[in-house]
Amino acid sequence: RFFEDLKDMLGFTPYRCYYYLWKYITPILLLVLMLASFIQMVLTPATYKAWIQEEGKERELLYPTWAIVLFTSLIVVAIMPVPVVLLLHYFNVIKDSSSLSSVSYKKGRIIAES
């Protein structure tokens, strides 16, 4: 359905390689990037450079714990809907959204469907 929607919106069919890129390659690369960032965050504590007036020089300081907790919670809140909805669909807790009302885009017009 996604490819058909793209065809309707663009007016032409994208190359088939984009289908495989969007379905397999991109999610895998994003997951690898997210895991690498998480591993780097765990292994190397987050620091910032601050000017220490008494010493007359710049030093690297660790971020406070509350800032790291806030940063991590923002990341989790942003990412969690994806696996939660995936699991809810997998265990049939929520049904396919095709029965709900939706909006289609056809040649510059918005069509509301019920």
UniProtKB/TrEMBL annotation:
<dbReference type="Pfam" id="PF00209">
    <property type="entry name" value="SNF"/>
</dbReference>
<feature type="transmembrane region" description="Helical">
    <location>
        <begin position="21"/>
        <end position="43"/>
    </location>
</feature>
<feature type="transmembrane region" description="Helical">
    <location>
        <begin position="63"/>
        <end position="91"/>
    </location>
</feature>
<keyword id="KW-0812">Transmembrane</keyword>
<dbReference type="GO" id="GO:0005886">
    <property type="term" value="C:plasma membrane"/>
</dbReference>
<dbReference type="InterPro" id="IPR037272">
    <property type="entry name" value="SNS_sf"/>
</dbReference>
<dbReference type="GO" id="GO:0005298">
    <property type="term" value="F:proline:sodium symporter activity"/>
</dbReference>
<keyword id="KW-0472">Membrane</keyword>
<keyword id="KW-1133">Transmembrane helix</keyword>
<dbReference type="InterPro" id="IPR000175">
    <property type="entry name" value="Na/ntran_symport"/>
</dbReference>
<keyword id="KW-0813">Transport</keyword>
<dbReference type="GO" id="GO:0015820">
    <property type="term" value="P:L-leucine transport"/>
</dbReference>
<protein>
    <submittedName>
        <fullName>Uncharacterized protein</fullName>
    </submittedName>
</protein>
